[in-house]
Amino acid sequence: MKYVVILGDGMADYPVAQLGGKTPLQRAHIPNMDYLARHGTLGLVKTVPEGMAPGSDTANLAVLGYDPRIYYSGRSPFEAYSMGIMLKDTDIAFRCNLVTLSQGKPYEERVMLDHGAGEISSQEARELIATVNEELSRLDIKFYPGVGYRHLMVWSEGPYEWKLTPPHDILGRQIKDYLPAGSESRAIEDMMRLSAQFLGGHVINKKREAAGKGPANSIWIWGEGKKPLLTDFNLKYDVRGAVISAVDLIKGMGLCAGMESIEVEGATGNINTNFSGKARAALEWLQAGGDFVYIHIEAPDECAHMYEIENKVKAIELIDDQVVKVIKAGLDRSGEAYKLMVLPDHATPLALRTHTSDPVPFIIYESTSSTEAASHVYDEDCAGGTGVYFAEGHKLMDFFLRGSAPDETDPL
Questions:
Q1: Whole-model pTM?
Q2: Which domain holds residue 312?
Q3: Could you tell me which of 5, 8, 3, 69 has the C-alpha nearest to residue 346?
Q4: Could you report the per-residue pLDDT of 255-270, keeping only the tens digit for each?
Q5: pLDDT tens-place string over residues 11-23
Q6: CA-to-CA distance for 367 and 262, rounded, in angstroms?
Q7: How far is residue 237's CA from residue 335's CA, in Å, rounded to a whole number?
């Protein structure tokens, strides 16, 4: 048996007036997902436990079968693992975004315009982070380049009591109410303020502005965490597994869980990613002897953060046509039995431009099953009407790989 998870980050949403009162999933033309919904198990899963922040970190941990209440120690340590940075038990890692803030005012009065600095390229970002490291590093603090706007800061024996806000949660807002709080928060705030002084005039940003692009004119530090300890996914489920993603968070999560991380040329973490390349890489992995692939696609989430309504619909359609369709066709040709799961990690409503803890719709399709529900389509409402519900998201992977029962008696 082969197993594939196709995770469209942030696909779930609320009804959108500009889409005729439909959600992006309802508006999108997704014949392949709809086919799986008619012939598979359709339901809802709550991926983010009550009281925990609805991030891709907690939600993807749950989808992979790890209870975030037990295994979550912060977001950035997974990213560090993906980047080859070996954290000590006493290290604190932080996500360091390159962001675009409004200009011409005192730092605290500026507005968060773009949490990803206009989809800055990794090559441009490496030069900027090198400058950040030259200007701001200390014996106990270092900065490391990642992918696109996503980078890392490591504080050796740093404090672990913080109140740090994700930049994608405050798009369009003045930043003064969201500056760092907690132990030694002034040190973090000072680094952010100083970065704005030298990044604004950097040659990379001058070129970006000349080309009509947003400058990466500040760093934004958040997502603190300690060295993670996950049990081995392959041993837990008796499979040989791999992850495919453009973002260090998911790569690192897979590596920490003992899986392989498959690199795909042209994978970007936005709507211009290599959708079909991810699908082909997954099929090649399975053909070469792998049992399980977790394909993570960031595009719908990024579109929702940027309030790109039509692009979110388009991203979902591209996942359907270039990933779901390609994966199913390839698995059908192989002649081997398989199971396929499609779901978001969390909802990212366009109206909010950030994540929520709402239950999200999932499909599990098994090639050997003769199930058919002619009225089923893949969207939030139809999934909610089936009565199939997992109140604890980490139990969904057990159902997918082992066939354990959902929490049908738990209230929605």
A1: 0.86
A2: 2-73+231-402
A3: 8
A4: 999 999 999 999 998 9
A5: 999 999 999 999 9
A6: 25
A7: 23
